[in-house]
Specification:
Keywords: ATP-binding, Cell membrane, Ion transport, Membrane, Nucleotide-binding, Potassium, Potassium transport, Transmembrane, Transmembrane helix, Transport
Membrane topology: Single-pass membrane protein
Subunit structure: The system is composed of three essential subunits: KdpA, KdpB and KdpC.
Strand order of the largest sheet: 3-5-4
Number of domains: 2
InterPro entries: KdpC
Number of helices: 6
Main location: membrane
Radius of gyration: 25 Å
Helix content: 40-55%
Order of helices and strands: HHEEHEHHEEH
């Protein structure tokens, strides 16, 4: 009924199907699951727990902090909504963007009691994702006097916390705020 060549071709095809089903349907998913367990902190979203053991956020996703006793994050074009992340796509000269930046600059200068020219760019502009968990060390240093006064800590103590929380070119705001709260509790 079937020629020898057809049966041989069918046998090779079935062997390949079975082999790749096992490799891609069993071994590869198992290997990825295993890697996820080896690097569980990263694979599970780098969740951060507070002093009470409750999850307070992710070290990888920014969130809004508007309490004057805490360090503030970068603005977010998405309102810190991870499901709606992204930039505004407004052009550099767009009137809405220019107005928003000017308003943020004036508000932050007043809040931090500094000249508007002292407000760093990351304090007034959203990151590309709108979910950046980091601020620049300059923006963190700008906020030290306000946070120190509100928490009843010395500026040197808070400056040390900023330095300890600096990771490369950025300061993780969630981790910094947790450190501030921990020191303020005594």
């Amino acid at each position: 009924m079937f020629s020898a060549t057809y049966r041989r071709t069918l046998g090779v095809a079935a062997t390949f199907l079975l082999t790749f089903t096992v490799i891609l349907g069993v071994l590869y998913p198992f290997a990825m699951w295993g890697a996820g367990r080896v690097f569980a902190h990263n694979a599970d979203g780098s969740m951060v727990t507070g002093a009470d053991g409750q999850v307070v956020g992710s070290a990888l996703i920014g969130q809004e902090f508007d309490d004057p006793a805490l360090f503030h994050s970068r603005p977010s074009a998405s309102g810190y909504d991870a499901l709606d992340s992204g930039a505004t796509n407004l052009a550099k000269g767009d009137e809405t963007l220019l107005r928003d930046v000017a308003e943020r600059r004036a508000r932050i200068a007043q809040e931090e009691n500094v000249a508007e020219s002292a407000v760093p760019d990351d304090a007034i502009t959203a990151s590309a994702s709108g979910l950046d968990p980091h601020i620049s060390p300059e923006y963190a240093r700008l906020q030290i006097p306000r946070v120190a006064k509100a928490q009843g800590l010395s500026e040197d103590t808070v400056a040390g916390l900023v330095l300890d929380s600096t990771q490369g070119q950025g300061v993780n705001v969630l981790l910094l705020n947790l450190a501030v709260l921990d020191v303020a509790k005594g």
